[in-house]
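Reposting from the mailing list since nobody answered there.

I have sequence plus structure tokens for a pair of proteins and want to know whether others read the tokens the same way I do. The first protein:
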Amino acid sequence: QVLLVESGGGLVQAGDSLRLGCVGSERTFSSYAMGWFRQAPGKGREEREFVAAISRLGDSTDYADSVKGRFTISRDNAKNTVYLQMNSLKPDDTAVYYCAARYLGVSQTSDYDDWGLGTQVTVSS
């Protein structure tokens, strides 16, 4: 099991940038593909939306259409950390952002093995 802790959320204005980070506890962090999901206000856990994912070694990435060109996922396996750089933020990006680990590789579905507790991102207009 990988314990994941997100950080970097906050309140920003439309057009601003934020960088989220997620640290994993497991020494074999590099064995897991990592993903970012978000849960908008008023929506349940089953409605968590895929945002981005990155392969074990960081050589492959995937993005939701809604964030392509604005968000960038990256990882530093030496630091057991995955990042989500978010630029040109919009009010629709307001959500709790979760990182997740998946042993079987990158996926846009929510069948990840371990999840963090989330970090709030609020974008004002």
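The second protein, same order (residues first, tokens after):
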Amino acid sequence: QVQLVESGGGLVQAGGSLRLSCAASGRTSSSYVMGWFRQAPGKEREFVAAIARSAVITDYRDSVKGRFTISRDNAKNAVYLQMNSLKFEDTAVYYCAASNDLVFRGSRTMYDYWGQGTQVTVSS
């Protein structure tokens, strides 16, 4: 089992950048496919990005491609989401997630563990 704690959220102006971090404790994060999701007020939670155990393969939702970058440092048991050129519509609570799936399925991955989330607010 793994525990996930997100950090790095905050208030930023449109066009700005934020870097979210997800610290994993318990079982090493290298054992999991990792992902980021977000949920805006009144909307369903949606997939943002995912990264394979090896960090070689990634996947993104179309609206963040070219602006967001997911990465991981297995030695530090951490996953990151670098968010550039932020838009008002990126405002949401962002969640880190871990999957036991042995195959990387990108946006179709089913996740077993979730963090508590970190708020990202982009002012227009």
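Reply #1 (J.P.):
I read it the same way you do. The chain has no helices and eleven strands.
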